[in-house]
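#struct-help
A.M.: can someone run this one for me? Single chain, 300 residues.
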Amino acid sequence: MDEKEQLIKQQHTYRRKYGWKDFLLDALAFTVGSSCLAVSVNMFTAPNNIAPGGFSGLATLINYLTGLPIGAVLLVANIPLFLIAFKVFGLKFVARTGVMTVMSAVFIDVAANYLTPYSGDKLLASLFGGFLTGLGYGLVFARGATSGGTDVVGRLLQKKFRHIPMGTMVMIMDMMVVILSGFVYKNIESMLYAAIVFFVSGRVSNYVIYGAGNGKLLMIVSPKGDDIAREIVTETKRGVTIVPVQGAYTGQQQRLLLNVVRPGEVQRIYRIVRRVDKDAFVMITAADEILGYGFTIDET
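D.P.: on it. Structure tokens below:
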């Protein structure tokens, strides 16, 4: 086995099967996430006529117009989406998202019988509702699942409109619900408060998933690139892409390493690089969205 094959084998040694630890982490994240959503909907958003986008916002509007339970509406609205997603993406994608959707729907309707709605300042309701919504979604997204609704619709639409980022499509659909809330409640303030919830929840969920900022892309140029890559994979369990390059000025054959990490891991990677090659050329830039193993997992 040559050096390249050994490195590839090392990169895959940390890809283990779904085990009981993963199950417990998923269960904890889904439970806490569903609880946060239930508190947000029943205490802060729905009682104050705020529909913060997504299917949960749409269910809130239907609840306002018909009196139907928000969780039940949320669950029923997702059923046809899951049937289509199962046919397009398969069971792996639908399973975890389906579990999260069922849990959040049940938690929302059960909590409605025990939580006391907040009826104070609507701005505070928007801020706390957005924080709890973002925290709930962030925990779920960090475990590689989604909340159903517009996330599933976005993935389905991206199959046809690949030139449009999924995040953009989801944001457009969410904003349509926010705008619709102004007409349903016949109050522009409700729409403006919903926009606040939408903004705050997005910021909080990104913080939960990525930390203080988005991911970071490290581009490392060094003649000792193979050694650096081996050390990164061994010590951090992060994958590295190796690209052979040649310096235009020196004509020297080198390696360009591409390594995507969370912000908190940058300094650790940098120390590894400097330990192996103190003269390595390192470029660090922001990665706005990361889909793949170890980050926001793309189940498609």
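A.M.: thanks! Residues 20-210 form one domain.
D.P.: also worth noting: The chain has two domains: 20-210, 212-287.
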